[in-house]
Amino acid sequence: MKNLDDFLALVQSEVGLSLTPSTVGVGFDELPGWDSLHLLTLLTAIERETGRRAPMAEVLEATSPRDIYVLTAPRVET
Questions:
Q1: Residue 16: CA atoms inside 13 Å, Cβ hemisphere, count?
Q2: Which of 30, 31, 40, 74 is the most interior residue, by most CB within 10 Å?
Q3: In contact, 46 and 1? CB cutoff 8 Å
Q4: pLDDT at residue 78 in the model
């Protein structure tokens, strides 16, 4: 998972939810069919893809898929 497009593809393949850059910020409570099992599935896939553990305390406070992406996206070294 190198960028937002990769994240959106991962959400589609692992959860079956089709998001776009304009809908990734929609709240979980507004996503049809979203439930906590989707979150666990997505986090497992993200950890597998990135080789890093997700920051669970922060992830549990996320309100949208965008929040998850921001918390788990690759960091650019400066």
A1: 6
A2: 31
A3: yes
A4: 58
